[in-house]
Structures are given as structure tokens and as C-alpha cells.
Design brief:
The chain is α/β, with parallel strands linked by helices. The chain folds into 3 domains: 107 residues, 3-Layer(aba) Sandwich (Rossmann fold), CATH 3.40.50; 152 residues, 2-Layer Sandwich (Heat Shock Protein 90), CATH 3.30.565.10; 115 residues, Rossmann fold. 49% of the residues lie in helices and 19% in strands. Strands 6, 7, 8, 9, 10, 11 and 12 form a 7-stranded mixed β-sheet that branches. Strands 2-1-3-4-5 form a 5-stranded parallel β-sheet, with helices on both faces.
């Protein structure tokens, strides 16, 4: 820009003398680059200022109706306290009192009448440059403030993520502590249930008792996934996880059967009625793990029941949605406010007060994420909630709810079974006898070593946690007596030991508890089948 030019700007001129305005306009034309508006009536100054949004104001002081001091004060009231907009006073009165009063009103500078065009140009130029410099500084400060706010939000998000991870880690430690006892209990439920099922299938295949027992076994199989899910809410799906084609409608029907004791029997005992309906359309199948998806639906139905203490309705609905399948669980319960909706999938957040753990929906969300899906939530206080599971559809032609199990070992084996809990030892032995094997039971490691010295065995199946000598120690001692004898280690901490990636010395395979007959048969086939 040439030094005599003015920067591009908007200027407002207020003076009751038309001759002064014409002179100022000629100055602005001479030095170029500016747009201006002018008025000889100071009463029009404020509306004109609001409309024109000038970068600089030139105003006379002594005017009829409204003097310059009032004009300056009124304009300053329209401005933000931190904004810099220069207001230049045009006056022939250069007394100190006049200057002080004008400055107190908000004036930035003075130009003495009669006007000198060069002085006018220089003062306007300097004030506009200061104005635009302040604007650039303000913009820089604004951008830096936004950057700091974004950085602060990222920091807060990172802090919250660390807190969530620590919570999940603490939960994993807690779950690991209860896993052993919990899995031992499930081993008995699942094991004896599986042993009873063949009798009912042969003698009373259509009885209610067989149906009840089938539900018990299926529920126990599903429960084997629960402890693991508590330890690994948001882990990614692993490449070797079993995924089969599942019928969403069948999953919904099974979840309703599993939850019937709560929404039917218990609700009636409490004097309330919960109506359950379905709108199960013909939909595509989804690729997934049946126990995990049933766990999600079961949890959502239980939550719906809890949200309707005075009764209400639950509706399960399925529909195709492009390349996805949508499974909805709706209730007419208490609903949630927007904050609760935003947080309900967080670990340890619960709307149930002391009755809730805050874990159910977190587990459900982790399961759906591992299946490549998402959970959508629609809720309104006092009107109810809908949870929608959106899962990728699959074009697989067949539905399979279970992994095919290998055949029983062709030749009968003599197996040494070691567990300090006699009832579990008997259960494992009964599974083996059912498949035609001979089982010898021992209840501690020392007895097992004595038995091994006295007789020949084809396989050892041992618990890990036993007093005196644990399973790993027993396996090491067995290697010294019978090198090459395979040892299967049963343990409630099996998932943790398998995650370590290496087998302890002398152990051919680790099988997590609870162990089903199929699990045991699969392990024996893998360990001993190749050698037979």
C-alpha cells in the first residue's frame, strides 16, 4: 500500500455542518480505499452505526439535539468491552476540560478545526492500522483459544479413557478372583445336566422335565462366557473366535424362554403384569456367537422388567435394514433422560441405584462391538426405552448353533483323574466312563503319583489349584516317572493361562472350567487321537 493511501475500511461521519462533511468526504476520496456514510443529524448516528458497522467514527462535539459526548457514549454501549473501535472527535474547542470529558465518554483521538487534510489523513491512517492490528490479534487469540480448548478436550477425553481403563482393569482383577469358584460351580451344573440329558432323550423326549433340563444346560453353557466378558469389555474380536450363522428370531425366542421366570412368574408374584409381544419378521441371519448374543438380549429384557415396577409391555422386534439386521427390545417403563442415555453404556454407570452394578450394558456393548455392530438407544422419561442391536447380515445358507464336536476316542483309555473336589472328580470320571474309558480317581497330587508308580495310564486329567501339590507341579513330577504321558490341565483360570501363550512344563493342553462333555471329548481327541 502507498504511504498516502488509506487501508480499505468503513468510516462514519457525524457533523451538523455540511461543509465539514463535504471536506472530509473529499479527503477520503483523495486518499482512496475507504467506504463512508455521513449524517448531519446526530440523532441518526446510532441507527446508522448499527446498520453500517464502521471501522472508525468521526464526530463533531457541539451539535443540536444530541451532542458528541452522548453520541460517543451511545456507540460505546453497542460495543463489546474488549473491542477496539477508534472514535475521533472533530472540534474547535481544545480546552483541557473538553478533552478530558471527551476521553471519559470514550473518544480515541482529536482533530482540531479548521481541518488540515494531511493531519486528517495521517490520524485516520494510524487509527485504522491500530484497529486492524487489534482485529488480527483478536483473531489470533480466538484461534489459539480454540486450539487450547480442543487440546483441553482431548486431554480430558484421554484422562477419562485412562480412568475407564483402570476401572476395567480393576474389574478384571476382581473377576479373576471369583472365576475359579464360579467355574467350579458351573462345571457341576453343566456336567451333571449333560449326563442327565441322554436319559430324558431316550425315555421322555417330549416331557417338560427334558425341556427344563435343556434350558438349564444351555443357560450354564452361556454362563461360561460371562466371567470372560467381565474381564474384557472392549477387546477386539480375535481371529480364531467361532462365528456361525444365527437366526435372530430364534435368539429372541430363546431369550424370552430364559427370562420368563422374571417377566412372568416373579412379576405375578409381585402383583404386576408384564405383557410380552414379538414382531419377528423373516430376516437375514447374523454371523456371531450364540451364547454372547443371547446374553445381550437376556440382559436387555431383564433391564426392561426392572424399568417397569408397576407393570407394562415388552416388545421384541426384528427387521432387515439394508445390509444389516435390527433387533429391538422396547419397553413402556420409566425411560431415561438425555444424560442417562449418553452414559448408560459406560462401565459402572447405573440408573438402578444400589440394585444395579452398572456392568450389564457395558458387557452388552462390548459384545455387539466385537460382532461388528452397534447399539442405538431411543428413550424418553415416563414413556419407555428402545434398545436396537444393529448387526451385519450374513448370506450363509445354513444355521448352526453349536460347533461340531469330534468323535469320542476310538480306543478305550485308562485315565488318571485328579481333583481335590471329589464331586468334580466324580463328574469328570463319569464323562469318561460314558465314552467307554476307564477312570481312576485321586484327590491330591501325592496320591496321583503313587497311583502312577503302581499302574500304567494313557492320560492324566488334573485340576490346577490343589493343596500340597498343584497341577503344574504334578505334571513335572509325572514327566520324571512316565516321560511322554500327556497331561490335560483343568482350571478355573484357564483363559488367563492360555492367554500367556506358552504351556507349563509337562502340560499337553489347558482346558478352562467349566468343562462340558464335548469340551473334554475334544481335548482328549486332540491330545490322544493323533497317537492312536
Amino acid at each position: 500500500m502507498h504511504q498516502n493511501q488509506l487501508p480499505p475500511a468503513r468510516i462514519l461521519i457525524i457533523d451538523d455542518e455540511p461543509s465539514n462533511i463535504r471536506l472530509l468526504e473529499r479527503v477520503l476520496e483523495l486518499y482512496g480505499g475507504v467506504e463512508w456514510r455521513s449524517t448531519v443529524d446526530p440523532r441518526e448516528a446510532v441507527p446508522l452505526f448499527a446498520e453500517f458497522s464502521p471501522d472508525l467514527v468521526l464526530t463533531d462535539l457541539h451539535m443540536p439535539h444530541v451532542d458528541g459526548y452522548q453520541v460517543i457514549s451511545q456507540i460505546r454501549e453497542l460495543l463489546d468491552a474488549n473491542s477496539f473501535l477508534p472514535i475521533v472527535v472533530l472540534t474547535a474547542d481544545i480546552s483541557p476540560e473538553t478533552r478530558r470529558k471527551a476521553l471519559r465518554s470514550g473518544a480515541s483521538d482529536f482533530i482540531t478545526k479548521p481541518l488540515d487534510t494531511t493531519e486528517v489523513q495521517l490520524r485516520i491512517r494510524n487509527l485504522l492500522e491500530n484497529r486492524f492490528l487489534n482485529l488480527r490479534l483478536d483473531e489470533t487469540v480466538r484461534k489459539r483459544t480454540e486450539e487450547l480448548e480442543r487440546a483441553n478436550l482431548k486431554l480430558l477425553d484421554a484422562q477419562q479413557q485412562v480412568v475407564r481403563q483402570e476401572r476395567l482393569r480393576a474389574l478384571g482383577v476382581m473377576a479373576g478372583g471369583i472365576a475359579h469358584d464360579f467355574n467350579n460351580a458351573l462345571t457341576m451344573i453343566l456336567g451333571y445336566g449333560e449326563l442327565l440329558l441322554p436319559w430324558f432323550q431316550n425315555h421322555a423326549p417330549d416331557s417338560r422335565e427334558r425341556s427344563y433340563l435343556t434350558h438349564i444346560v444351555t443357560a450354564a453353557q452361556d454362563a461360561t462366557h460371562v466371567v470372560g466378558r467381565l474381564r474384557e469389555f472392549y477387546r477386539p474380536a480375535e481371529a480364531d473366535e467361532v462365528r456361525v450363522a444365527l437366526d435372530p428370531n430364534q435368539l429372541c425366542e430363546q431369550a424370552l424362554e430364559f427370562t420368563a421366570p422374571k417377566w412372568k412368574v416373579r412379576a405375578r408374584a409381585l402383583g404386576v403384569t408384564i405383557r410380552v409381544g414379538t414382531e419377528l419378521r423373516a430376516v437375514n441371519r447374523v454371523l456371531g456367537c450364540g451364547p454372547e448374543l443371547r446374553e445381550v438380549l437376556t440382559n436387555l429384557i431383564f433391564n426392561a422388567c426392572d424399568a417397569m415396577p408397576s407393570g407394562g409391555s415388552i416388545l421384541l422386534r426384528t427387521l432387515d435394514q439394508g445390509g444389516e439386521v435390527r433387533i429391538e427390545v422396547s419397553d413402556t417403563g420409566t425411560g431415561m433422560n438425555p444424560e442417562q442415555v449418553a452414559r448408560c453404556l459406560e462401565p459402572f454407570f447405573s440408573t438402578k441405584g444400589e440394585r444395579g452394578t452398572g456392568l450389564g450394558l457395558s458387557v452388552a456393548y462390548g459384545i455387539i462391538q466385537r460382532h461388528g455392530g452397534d447399539i442405538e438407544i431411543l428413550s424418553e422419561e415416563g414413556k419407555g426405552t428402545t434398545f436396537a442391536l444393529v448387526l451385519p447380515a450374513t448370506t450363509a445358507a445354513t444355521v448352526s448353533m453349536d460347533v461340531a464336536e469330534p468323535p469320542a476316542e476310538a480306543r478305550p483309555l485308562r485315565v488318571l483323574v485328579v481333583d481335590d473336589q471329589e464331586i468334580i472328580c466324580e463328574l469328570i470320571s463319569e464323562h469318561l466312563r460314558t465314552d467307554g474309558h476307564e477312570a481312576v480317581m485321586m484327590f491330591d497330587g501325592v496320591q496321583a503319583l503313587d497311583a502312577l508308580k503302581r499302574g500304567a495310564f494313557d492320560l492324566i486329567i488334573t485340576d490346577q489349584s490343589m493343596p500340597g501339590m498343584n497341577g503344574e507341579q504334578l505334571a513335572r513330577e509325572c514327566r520324571l516317572i512316565c516321560p511322554g504321558l500327556p497331561v490335560i490341565l483343568l482350571t478355573g483360570f484357564g483363559e488367563e493361562m492360555k492367554a500367556a501363550g506358552t504351556l507349563p512344563d509337562g502340560i499337553a493342553m489347558i482346558v478352562p472350567k467349566p468343562v462340558s462333555g464335548a469340551d473334554l471329548r475334544r481335548a482328549i481327541f486332540e491330545v490322544c487321537g493323533q497317537a492312536s
